[in-house]
Amino acid sequence: MTTKPRILILGSTGQLGRELQRSFADAGEVVALGRATIDLSRTDQLRAIVREAAPRLILNAAAYTAVDRAESEPDLARAINAHAPTVLAEEALRANALFFHYSTDYVFDGTKSSPWVESDATNPLNVYGQTKLEGEQAIQQIGGRSLIFRTSWVYGPHGKNFLLTMLRLGSERKELRIVDDQIGAPTSSLQLADATRRVADQLLSGRVPVESAGIYHMTCSGSTSWCGFARAIFEQAERLLHAPAPEVVPIPSSEFPTPARRPAYSVLSGEKLVQTFGVRLAPWQAALEEVMARLAP
Questions:
Q1: Residues near 207 by Cβ (< 8 Å), separated by ≥ 6?
Q2: Distance from CA of residue 109 to its chain's centroid?
Q3: Which among 18, 16, 15, 26 is positioned nearest to 7, based on CA atoms?
Q4: Which tens digit of pLDDT belongs to each residue from 174-210?
Q5: Residue 1: is its pLDDT beyond 50?
Q6: Across residues 68-77, what is the average pLDDT?
Q7: How is the chain split among helix, strand and coil, in percent rounded to 5?
């Protein structure tokens, strides 16, 4: 009888961490740690916890994701998004463990008009993107069995995200003005977690060689603007949740200034993930319906 692997999930209380626990529940012995248990800015504590857990697979769903606040808290963002992943990669290498880390479309500057591929030059526009890029670079420099999954516009039935914010604002207002000139791929935490499980199963079983370590884009397929995403949310909310649908008015980014600049076009190509692992996430519209069904009474 084969012993199931021990799996360490960091960021367990976040929207992705919660779904990873669901998706990996039967994959092995899951050790899930959240903010109350571990301070990722304390690298000594992080190192000790990884060594005590002795996992075969580390899933790092923890990150500093407050994009605008990062502009005024660069040191804290860097500690969590760059220094902590460095420690995790070092510990994974030391123990010959698999290490999965999540990065972002915001490592790109948005100047392309076709989906970004993994080998495209990075040029982040904000502190959040820069610290996530530094985390990627550190992991790659350390080497080992580390996979970096760049994703985008993550939302789900739990936590703080665009979907839940829209549903709350939609119940309070008759009109919402939403940016329509930033294009990306909304990606649900459900799809992200389940795709991660499919990749992990192949690597842990040896069906795909560990030489497949590297960067992969992992997003739902298709693309839309924040305004288009909001309209789709309210269309489905009206049908599935019987929620009121406010009027959604498209506006340019210039009408909604934020401390952090965002890329205008950050759609990621998922073809490398398909070619290596045969894993393709659902179209963003279908993924949205899946999440909305979770919210339905």
A1: 201
A2: 18
A3: 26
A4: 999 999 999 999 999 999 999 999 999 999 888 877 6
A5: no
A6: 95
A7: 45, 20, 35
Q: Which residue has the tokens 């009121």?
A: 244
Contact predicate 10/17, CB 8 Å? yes
CA dihedral 86, 65, 101, 135 (to 10 degrees): -30
Coil, strand or helix: which one is 84? helix
Higher pLDDT, 101 or 2: 101
What are the structural domains, with CATH classification, of the chain? 6-159+188-221+267-281 (3.40.50.720)
Q: Which of 27, 44, 36 is nearest to 62 (CA)?
A: 36
Query: Closest Cα to residue 139, out of 194, 81, 192?
Result: 81
pLDDT at 2: 54
Q: Would you say residue 172 has pLDDT above 60?
A: yes
Active site residues: 128
